[in-house]
Amino acid sequence: MKKTGIFFGSSLGKTEKVARLIQEQLGKNNADIFDIKKVTPGTVLKYDNLILGTSAWGIGDMQDDWEDFIDTLVELDLSEKKIALFGLGDQKKYPESFADGLGTLYCRLPVKTNIIGAWPVKGYSYYCSMAEKEGVFVGLVIDDDSQPELTHSRVSEWVKQISGELK
Ligand SMILES: Cc1cc2nc3c(=O)[nH]c(=O)nc-3n(C[C@H](O)[C@H](O)[C@H](O)COP(=O)(O)O)c2cc1C
After folding, report:
1. Is any ligand 1 atom within 6 A of the Cβ of residue 54?
2. CB 90 within 8 A of CB 145
3. Distance 57 CA to ligand 1 centre (A)
4. In whole angstroms, how far apart are CA 32 and each of 4, 48, 124, 125, 150?
5. How remote is the CA of residue 111 from the centroid of ligand 1, in Å?
6. At 55, which helix (H) or strand (E)?
7. Ligand 1 geometric centre to CA of 89 (Å)
């Protein structure tokens, strides 16, 4: 497997925690991890596989650092890369905008054909989510606020699912 770069933005540390779990599941030799606060475009371009993660803030907002970094990212040619997305949210407190940050991140990526890792909506309870497209989430959704007991199993199942598709 070619090396994967995991890029996360995290305000309270939850998305970082999930990014680290994903790295563990992929194996530390297979994946490097970066806080987007400290990352340059050149670092992103070094990887054939990208895993991008954000939490949700406000209605439709990505985590703050993503709001800045996305403009840099969309300038890069990512068309030859495999990209998988994950997003955090809180379905109990924000059922009208659950995991919207993930939906916005997906929406902002100019090429969608190389995005892998869609995830079932079964097991979550919410009214609306911008991360849901055609009956599935566009990436892994983690609710470490109201379903923390499911975080580990969801991550390990998703990593198994995408591993075969990574380059
Ligand atoms: C002010 C505020 C607004 C939030 N807005 C949303 C939201 O619209 N949708 C959602 O699903 N979660 C929302 N959340 C929940 C966070 O996305 C969730 O707690 C996440 O795990 C935080 O991850 P982080 O620590 O990596 O930033 C919000 C949390 C706060 C404190």
Report:
1. no
2. yes
3. 5
4. 6, 12, 29, 32, 24
5. 26
6. strand 49-57
7. 5
Q: What pLDDT score was predicted for residue 58? A: 83
Query: Which residue is closest in CA terms to ligand 1's atom 16?
Result: 89
Name the β-bridge partners of 6.
33, 51
Q: Ligand 1, closest atom to CA 91?
A: 11
Which of 93, 124, 155 has most ligand 1 atoms within 8 Å of CB, for mutation?
Answer: 93
- Closest ligand 1 atom, CA of 142? 21
* Digit-coded pLDDT (tens) for 19-40: 999 999 999 999 999 999 999 9
CB 78 within 8 A of CB 108: no
Check whether 157 has a pLDDT greater than 90.
Answer: yes
Q: CA separation (Å) from 130 to 4, 66, 70, 139?
A: 26, 16, 17, 11
Q: Which of 3-12, 52-61, 92-101, 148-157 has the lowest mean pLDDT?
A: 52-61
- Ligand 1 touching residue 148 (CB < 6 A): no
Q: Which tokens in the block code for residue 98?
A: 């659950």
Q: Structural domains in the chain? A: 4-163 (3.40.50.360)
